[in-house]
């Protein structure tokens, strides 16, 4: 069983909709000593977990209605910008995972190497800089459409974001190979997709042409 499958096997109830969901689709929160609401993205902080669907609308609803207090049966003071905080933490976690993947040798950067690895059929994700070259990106995505299974695509990070995370200069094209690290990355980046689109709309690519579903920042396909 993969890490992703093991994580999906655990279910929790969303505070907002009361639906039971896989943990991978939720954000865990705990009560901080000062009564504030602390995000626990790693699910390791002590205390009773308060779970909310991993999307901006759900967290904003939980804050507005102060559903944390109701669930905890104690006064709690969630910050008004809690959704922004969660988004920022998820963004950072995704980049950190890419840095780990490169050190483990399962993230390959550069256009030619990325192209070769997509052809190999072992690519889980194509990671393109949001502000990268349309020509190189187009060639990689065109090839990906013919692969089975098709690699998923992420274009949420800029070249500066990727370069800093990977310790490279001008990182534009990268691929993440199948395996445990890709499973971890998928869990994190799919949670991030509840807060911002995984692909920039200015790329001008119709959703039907994309190798993966482009999430609209609310956790659902457009």
Would you write up a description of this structure?
- It is a single chain.
- This protein is an alpha+beta fold and 222 residues long.
- Helices cover 39% and strands 16% of the residues.
- The chain has eight helices and nine strands.
- The chain has helices spanning 3-8, 56-64, 67-72, 82-104, 111-120, 134-144, 159-166, 180-192; strands at residues 11-13, 20-22, 26-31, 37-39, 50-53, 107-109, 123-128, 152-154, 173-177.
- Helix 2 (56-64) packs antiparallel against helix 4 and helix 4 (82-104) packs across helix 7 (159-166).
- The two termini are 31 Å apart.
- Residues 1-8 and 206-222 have low confidence and may be disordered.
Q: Share of helix among residues?
A: 25-40%
Structural class: alpha+beta
**Tally of helical runs:** 8
Tell me about the biggest sheet? 4 strands, mixed
Uncertain runs: 1-8, 206-222
Order of helices and strands: HEEEEEHHHEHEHEHEH
Mean pLDDT figure: 88
Number of strands: 9
* Side-by-side strand order of the widest sheet: 6-9-7-8
* Envelope shape: elongated
What fraction of the residues are assigned to beta strands by DSSP?
15-25%
N-to-C span: 31 Å
Radius of gyration equals 18 Å
In short:
This protein has 222 residues and is of the alpha+beta class.
């Amino acid at each position: 069983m993969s890490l992703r499958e093991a994580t999906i096997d655990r279910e929790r109830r969303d505070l907002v909709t009361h639906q039971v969901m896989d943990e991978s689709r939720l954000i865990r929160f705990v009560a901080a000593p000062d009564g504030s609401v602390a995000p626990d993205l790693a699910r390791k902080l002590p205390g009773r977990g308060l779970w909310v669907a991993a999307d901006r609308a759900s967290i904003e609803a939980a804050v507005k209605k102060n559903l944390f207090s109701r669930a905890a049966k104690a006064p709690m003071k969630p910050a008004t910008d809690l959704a922004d905080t969660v988004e920022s933490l998820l963004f950072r976690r995704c980049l950190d995972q890419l840095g780990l993947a490169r050190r483990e040798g399962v993230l390959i950067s550069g256009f030619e190497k990325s192209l070769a690895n997509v052809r190999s059929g072992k690519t889980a994700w194509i990671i393109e800089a949001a502000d990268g070259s349309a020509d190189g990106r187009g060639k990689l995505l065109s090839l990906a459409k013919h692969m089975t299974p098709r690699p998923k695509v992420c274009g949420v990070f800029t070249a500066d974001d990727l370069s800093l995370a990977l310790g490279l200069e001008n990182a534009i094209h990268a691929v993440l190979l199948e395996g445990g690290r890709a499973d971890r990355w998928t869990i994190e980046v799919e949670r991030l997709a509840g807060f911002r689109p995984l692909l920039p709309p200015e790329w001008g690519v119709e959703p039907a042409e994309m190798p993966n579903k482009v999430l609209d920042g609310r956790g659902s396909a457009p």
